[in-house]
Amino acid sequence: MKKKFDYIICGAGLSGLIMLNKILNEPIFDDKKILVIEKDLSHKKNKTWCFWEKKQTNWDNVAIKSWNNIIFKTSDFQKEVELEKYCYKMIKSKSLFTEIIKKVQNKNNFTIVEDDILELTESNNDVYVKTKHNEYYGQTVFSSIFDINKIKDKIKLPLLLQHFKGWTIKTEDFFFNDKKATIMDFSIEQKNETRFFYVLPINKKEALIEFTLFSKNILEKEEYNQELKKYISSIGIKKYEVTTEESGIIPMTCHSFENSNSKRIIKIGTAGGWTKPSSGYTFKFVEKNIDKLISLIKNDKKIKRTKFKTRHWIYDLIFLDVLYHNNEMGKKLFGEMFSKNKTECIFKFLDNESSLFEDFKIFTSFPKSIFIKSLIKNLGKIISNY
User: Fold this and answer.
1) pTM for this structure?
2) Helix, strand or coil for residue 37?
3) 238 and 350 co-located in one domain
């Protein structure tokens, strides 16, 4: 007998969990059968997601830490800001999963299974989902499954990789000011790339320290470790224990991921192109785009080729093009942006919520000639892809 569902969510990572949470809060789905398939329900990797947002939100109960003071550094200057409207927050994937799954337990129309997804095949009537241990059929599938290597050849626009490795460390003595988070420290050697560190203190003895790059290629595994050791030593920490570590690769591109959607299979999260191309930030864009998707479903509108592009997509394309061809300029570009603009205005800009006047002010922070050349060069791509 076929195991049939109205909606299947493939992957319970960030986008899958937020989609599940949104569905749980919408009465329109109360009579629908929902299946969630996730390969690791224990969330052993327990990923860290950080983002800024207005101070009071729905995620405060699962945030393990928040900061009202942030620091931006280069080798030339340091900017420390006390945020007024925003707060920088940290969430762990296991905590978010646990919180949302609690809501599912009293719902008879939801099924959660742990399994590896092997195949998605669409027909006129449904989508066949083959897993390692079972088979399912869904009317609509939301899939966050993504492998950058499978689509690299299809991407015709500039593609950089945000790749990172982070250690949560514990020091012997009090060391960190846990009221302040360093969101970008460019004071390290750049090696003709865009390289920086995060320092996110959880308490006075514990912090997540993360080495991040925007570049065309990833590093050898040991190089990440060496850079972490060097940086930790450079800020004055001599004795510490690494309690957890995490790493990842995020594509930075303006590629039209929505073109891979079909009538019944909708890509979400990074797979749907919901990562901010010029920064790699994803959390808030997942929230916004899921709200739009749910609104379309509630109004019985087609979602196959729904585009979530704004004028900020054009800005991202130009910025990425400049950074792709001049990868060593990242430190200068972010430094100019933070030194010449208010931090909360930058947050609005990076959230695609800035006004035209604010956009203009931020772009005048950058070297004009190289950005104008990039705009002219990419006019054809902008017209054909926007």
Assistant:
1) 0.93
2) strand
3) no
